[in-house]
Amino acid sequence: xxxxxAEVHAAWRRDPEAFWREAARxxxxxxxPDRIFDPASGPYGRWFPDATxxxxxxxxxxxxxxxxxDQVALIHDSPVTGAVSRFTYGEMRDTVATLAAVLAxxxxxxxxxxxxxxxMIPQAVFxxxxxxxxxxxxxxxxxxxxxxxxxxxxxxxxxxxVLTASCGVEPARIVPYKPLLDEALRLARHAPAxxxxxxxxxxxxxxxxxxxxxxxxxxxxxxRAGMRAACVEVKATDPLxxxxxxxxxxxxxxxxxxxxxxxxxxxxxxxNLYGVAPGEAFFTASDIGWVVGHSYIVYGPLIHGATSxxxxxxxxxxxxxxxxxxxxxxxxxxxxxxxxTAFRAIRKEDPDGVLRRHHDLSRLRTLFLAGERADPTxxxxxxxxxxxxxVDHWWQTETGWCIAGNPAGLxxxxxxxxxxxxxxxxxxxxxxxxxxxxxxxxxxxxxVIALPLPPGALPTLWGQDGxxxxxxxxxxxxxxxxxxxxxxxxxxxxWVMGRTDDIINVAGHRLSTGGMEEVLAxxxxxxxxxxxxxxxxxxxxxxxxxxxLKAGSARPRAAVEGEVVALxxxxxxxxxxxxxxxxxxxLPKTRSGKILRGTMKRIADGADWAxxxxxxxxxxxxxxxxxxxxxxxxxERPAVSPAVPGPETSR
Length: 651
Ligand code: COA
Ligand code: AMP
Description:
By secondary structure, the protein is an alpha/beta fold.
């Protein structure tokens, strides 16, 4: 079908408020919006300032009380535990209402924060919705983060309650979550009044008397007492959640998501971008700890009345590279969304797609990729193998939904491999030079979005309006700085080439090299350090650390290298995938003392590099090259990492 994108985009351009007023009709409001946008409040304005609603009502009750009561809302498919369970909208609403009553009985109310440190189990989804039901603000922390990272988030969000499970189940090991939470609470300054613990049979946890409570027992008692919490009326501008994401330092940014704008943006995206109808199955293979999981495992599909698949497994190894196709077939999935890393992992093990052919994928219409740059080789492999459209779309934790994509529901536009296609309505995107002037089509620049950001995007950072302005709104006045570099070509297609800051993407997981450097620098024998993102054929990028030992340090270099690797795992978590540190005599620097990270990355990637004119001592780069060579680097590998190596001297 011919794409309606141009027409829809033009309608938004012509009258953004009318566009979002119309889109807002997909949401059930308690008080419908009269005003659409208030430019005077918040760092850049607020959407639907006078409206009220409850997003849990939109995600559950309106379906449970209507025609979808017996339709499956959530399927938990867990190859790591060998279980599949299904919950209808009716069942899920009742479960969530009871859990919400438990939270309320623990003193959690409107505006209170609740931290979730949970694996991919249905209780995690119930908990998010239970918070939303009573107007509490949830903050989910990804399970692959270590205790110290969890502690930072607990201190910033200051939750009344923490919800956890006794363990996560990774293919090769059980991850006991509860000891990590106990350690985080030991490290944190803030002490939540209560922890609710979901006991899993794989590794039940010990409970701290007076602080910890058994989740299942609490729910059972509430059920016996007939306790159910009703949906609380909240303002559209009230925070629904805080999601911490990597910034340039070790201090994560608490991205705030408001309630009404988010509901409207997700409701618009489900039919128009993803082309999914209510009642169809939507499978996002991400984690509820990431923004993709918040938006398209939990809120988007449920608001739309679709069936969402919650997958506790990996693309490979649980049990094989056909796992996600088995899930798509078993649950009649219409749209599948994952990160390019997952496709690269599948391609590596099953290049000819043999395992895929064992499964009936006749209901699968579209594959969506996001989270990192989709390398054209992987996209082509998937397109040719499946004979299905593969939609790369670009977004960020901050934006909450897609900045640029190919709207399947409006009719797909022709694709250009390597481009996530075109901006979605609401995102007035341009590439600009350092002075903020728009660059000609096809010219590389900083990708910025003219304010206001659309509904669904962050209104601010938690408790930090000033940091919001400093981090995103001050470099290019009147614009949001995405932190990505790229181009917009003559056809309006967007090309995202890489970050302009210290953020790297490891297997679709966003990490801060600055945060890792803080950990390395804390080692008593380390004088100086630099962490860069090195191209990796599977994970896109992996971190690589360089260190200079303190003068007089008597420790063997190899010992310190091993210790900093262990330290990053302990302080940041296994998700950082920090496996290699290299000690050198000196780091390459400019004459003004800035570390030449960009050139180091090029050397590690085996890319062409030129001697920077400002270098203090060229021999330092030779040392880097030789040290890497001794470790078999750069390895021969397809270039999947961003074409832009990031800033040369960002710190
Ligand atoms: N809880 C605890 N630990 C976790 C975890 C969780 N929720 N998720 C990951 N980890 C651990 C892993 O066990 C692994 O630990 P290890 O070093 O002991 O092996 C480490 O963190 C790195 O995990 P991961 O990035 O998943 O790498 P992997 O080598 O285990 O698997 C892939 C590789 C490609 C299969 C995996 O990265 C993947 O599925 N990627 C898709 C990414 C994705 O969906 N991103 C979402 C953004 S849209
Ligand atoms: P996160 O906040 O974890 O979603 O990470 C956001 C960052 O991931 C973006 O700023 C980009 O650098 C990168 N990213 C996400 N999706 C894409 C994509 N489709 N193409 C290129 N980069 C992407």
